[in-house]
Amino acid sequence: MSVTLEQVGALLELIAPISFAEEWDNSGFNVNLHNTDISGIMICLDVLPETIEEAAEKGCNLIISHHPLLFRATKKIDSESYEGKCVQMLAERRISLYCAHTSMDSAPGGINTWLADQFALANRCYIQNGLVERFYEVAVHTPRGHAETVRRAMTSAGAGRLGEYAECTFNIDGKGTFRPEHDASPYIGQAGRLETADEIRISSICSENDLQKVLRAVRKVHPYEMPAISVLKTDEPQRINSGLGIVGDMPSPLPAGEVLDKLKAALQTDSVRVAGNLKKKIRRLGVCGGAAGDFAELARKKGAELFITGEIKHNEYAAQNDIILVEAGHFDTEKCFCRLYAQGLQKRLDDVNYNIAIYVTNLRRPYVNY
């Protein structure tokens, strides 16, 4: 069975939705050769000429990279430039390119989740919240005899889910009044006469994502020609669906030096750069892959005593404010991307029985040596 690029693209949205990406980023398709049947997929950290050659040799016509090839505004494609050469190679070999950059940084189960998992951090919060999903209160008036049917329709469509609780509703008995006009087809009563009915007001919370589905479900089962439904946007609760960087509690306090030993083992690296007292006991830790030195102060405000990232600028070290800073390398803090994304994509392919080979490129060492 052939699988199109568009069908695979829909699965990629399930792993790290584009809505999770930062506004300044260029996650998503950098090169989209439409109406293509996918023969194989290559996953890499960076798009390089040798990566494109490897993909072509393995019969892949889709590359998924972490870092975008077209990151900044491009005014021209010059085949002598790095970006232009890669675009030319992709086009000649009929290979599309999809980039999961800050979308994968921010996604639950993404790069920063992996980093936090290496230290088994508890009581986690994002350093910078990403996509925040609002909630609504949906209330509907229904005849008492139909209350259970309407209530079940609401909750089956997604209403009433709060944390670890489901089917949460509030119900008030009352009297409804209405007067059908001449062209109405009332479920109860007669045209032109004021009617009174025993009704129940059912209200429940639902997420922004489920709102339209809940409203359709109510209208489908409600006996009235024009059901009375009200929708109110709430300040609380809200669901934080994504975010950059994570701060959390260590299972038990560890000297900073021992935290670094665990970090080097997890990243399989020999050295990291650090500024601060290595004997200090660390109870709360912050992590953010890539170049996130500017997050150090935000991490400190959320309780982090030590902050790990890939790159830190000189002025960010200079502004160190009672927090230990660790620079573990952009490459090393993000190289987990390939394995994480391959596992996530394989699961989605298996779920829908798409038989497509996935390859992970041979990861190069960092571009600089120490």
TrEMBL record:
Keywords: Metal-binding. It holds the Pfam family DUF34_NIF3. The keyword Metal-binding applies. This is GTP cyclohydrolase 1 type 2 homolog. The keyword Metal-binding applies. Belongs to the GTP cyclohydrolase I type 2/NIF3 family. It comes from the Bacteria. Gene3D superfamilies: 3.30.70.120, NIF3 (NGG1p interacting factor 3)-like. One of its GO terms (cellular component) is cytoplasm. One of its GO terms (molecular function) is metal ion binding. A divalent metal cation binds at H66, H67, D105, H330, E334. PANTHER family: GTP CYCLOHYDROLASE 1 TYPE 2 HOMOLOG (PTHR13799:SF14), NGG1 INTERACTING FACTOR 3 (PTHR13799). It comes from Christensenella minuta.
